[in-house]
Amino acid sequence: MVSAGTPPPAPAARYGALRAELRERLPEHDFRRLYGTTSLERIARQNGVGRHLVAALAAEYGIVRRTPAQRPLRPIDGAWLFDQYVIAGRTIREIAADLGMSEGGLYQRARALGIRIRRKGGPSHVKRSPGGAETLLRSASESLQSLWTKNRELS
Fold first, then answer.
1. Domain segments of the chain: what residues?
2. For position 119, what pLDDT does the model report?
């Protein structure tokens, strides 16, 4: 606690104190293990500090920061994502929040998995009714069966 006559610590002194505290909480071997599966941003959030402070500690430990292409990808099952996004009609925002990842990252993954991205607020965002997908599939199935039957009759 700062007494009435003592000025608050300078930003550089505060930064140094935070860095020393973080260094105690995350020794090099723990930091390396954690950074193997986690982003600097997440490490910073988990420890209540800024990302730049975590990046400075990584540099102090001699840890080379990953480029975006080197970041570990969270495994996402394409069939599950298709079911959630297309069949269940959930938004990318909802799914990304559940997965703990960014919307942009999920958009890229969906495109890479061959899932067509709908426009925000487009026709697929119309009210979702229970059983809507089942009704649509049943209707399509009945239409195909009807066409198949007519085709057999004409043959």
1. 11-70, 74-128
2. 82
